[in-house]
Write a structure and sequence with these properties.
Helix content is 22%, strand content 32%. Helix 1 runs antiparallel to helix 2. The chain is built from four helices and 13 strands. By secondary structure, it is an alpha+beta fold.
């Protein structure tokens, strides 16, 4: 299965690969003909591999879980003094780095209602740079879990990525593991939660979108969250 967001690139790459293969076959001599044909196959093969979209099954009880929104490696877990966009207070941030070889389809990390959706154009620092979370091209999506816990997740473009795509709007009701978008050719995903949420993974762990459990969300409203009435953010 291939990600629909990749169809234009797959189509263009297929045309280039066919032209390269035909040119190599008719105009290159001997071993160079084989090299040209091999390059055409490798080019198309890599693009098809990159835009793969495997089926994922969320674990049982996903309605009370925080799942990984992206495949990749956990590169950072830090406490943030103040998250100004959606949580509006102290937060804990987990960052996942996606290499070009990882599946790049992104999935919603938790059940809830989407209360914030925004896109920010920006720089293209390498995805693991400490300032990439605040300076790179990115989307920022905030949802409120049925328990009242707020979750903010960000698609962050890396140095090779120039296109973030997502398919969520404010007011959408979403479910953990639901696919919602893609960042093309290397990226990072940040997940920010209130300090009372404890992550079950550590730096260096590899995670799979829609399957790996990052944390367990309480089934009742924390006192701080319950006192904070829902509000919609518009920028």
């Amino acid at each position: 299965m291939l990600a629909p967001e990749g169809y234009p690139i797959i189509g263009g790459t297929t045309l280039v690969a066919v032209l390269l293969a035909v040119g190599a076959y008719y105009w290159l001599p001997g071993v160079w003909r084989l090299v040209g044909l091999l390059l055409a196959v490798l080019l198309l093969g890599f693009v098809l591999f990159f835009f793969r979209d495997p089926e994922r099954r969320p674990p049982k009880g996903a309605e009370a879980l925080l799942l990984a929104p992206a495949d990749g490696k956990v590169v950072e877990i830090v406490d943030v003094d103040h998250e100004p966009v959606y949580l509006k207070g102290p937060a804990r941030r987990l960052s996942i780095f996606l290499s070009p070889l990882d599946v790049h389809v992104n999935r919603v990390p938790a059940d809830g209602v989407v209360e914030l959706v925004r896109y920010i154009s920006g720089d293209y620092l390498v995805a693991w740079h400490p300032k990439a979370s605040e300076q790179n091209e990115r989307s920022e999506i905030g949802l409120r879990h049925p328990s009242g816990t707020r979750v903010l997740f960000k698609q962050i473009a890396g140095v090779l990525a120039r296109r973030i795509e997502f398919h969520l709007q404010e007011g959408d009701t979403v479910h953990a593991g639901q696919r919602f978008g893609i960042v093309k050719f290397g990226s990072r995903m940040d997940v920010l939660v209130p300090p009372h949420v404890r992550f079950d993974v550590k730096v260096g762990d590899r995670v799979r979108a829609g399957e790996t459990v990052l944390a367990r969300l309480v089934t009742t409203r924390p006192a701080v969250e319950a006192a904070d009435t829902p509000r919609r953010h518009n920028d």
